[in-house]
Write a structure and sequence with these properties.
This protein is α/β, with parallel strands linked by helices. The chain has one domain: Alpha/beta knot, CATH 3.40.1280. The chain contains 5 helices and 5 strands; from the N terminus they run βαβαβαβαβα. The chain has a 5-stranded parallel β-sheet. α3 packs across α5. The radius of gyration is 15 Å and the shape is globular. The structure holds S-adenosylmethionine (SAM). The site of S-adenosylmethionine (SAM) has 18 residues, from β3 and α5.
Length: 159
């Protein structure tokens, strides 16, 4: 299985870099994992609604350029479907069974994801009603994907 994570902006803090590389290293035993960072759109702190939409659209186009037509896309969205770790694992397993082996997870930038990206998504998933900064979301996501593989293999880790 190939897992691609598309994110907006560069990972800055060392502690995130270390955490994410630890889980991507562990994940390599189960899947090919690739993290694609697309540039964020520079914008002032205060934005009108239409300026905010334009920022998301520009970032959205960069995200979509990384997604191939045969990719099954999970968009991370606060208002998406809330799943347990077991449900995420089950869905990944089901996709593999149906031959959908190219999965892309998308994390938005500081303003979120454009409508275009959300429409491309096959599934919108939420990690709860809390808003996480996108860099922390990346760490949580790689841990949850790793956890999903451990659950599917019945290997110790998951509690
Ligand atoms: C800082 S948040 C963006 C907040 C923006 N107001 C929104 O509603 O999307 C950056 C990205 O992290 C992801 N994210 C943050 N919290 C999340 C959550 N609880 N569940 C799923 N994704 C989340 C989403 O992909 C989001 O686009």
């Amino acid at each position: 299985m190939q897992i691609q994570i598309v994110t907006v902006g560069k990972l800055k803090e060392k502690y995130f870099v270390q955490g994410i590389s630890e889980y991507t290293k562990r994940l390599q035993a189960y899947a090919k994992i690739k993290i694609m960072e697309v540039p964020d759109e520079k914008a002032p702190e205060q934005l009108s609604e239409s300026e905010g939409r334009q920022v998301k659209e520009k970032e959205g186009k960069r995200i979509l350029a990384q997604i191939k037509p045969d990719h099954y896309v999970f968009a991370l969205a606060i208002n998406g479907q809330m799943w347990s770790s077991e449900q995420l694992a089950e869905n990944i397993e089901k996709l593999a069974t149906y031959g959908r082996s190219q999965l892309t997870f998308v994390i938005g930038g500081s303003l979120g994801l454009s409508d275009e990206v959300l429409s491309r998504a096959d599934q919108k998933i939420s990690f709860g009603k809390i808003t996480y900064p996108h860099q922390l979301m990346r760490l949580i996501l790689v841990e949850q994907v790793y956890r999903a593989f451990k659950i599917n293999r019945g290997e110790p880790y998951h509690k």
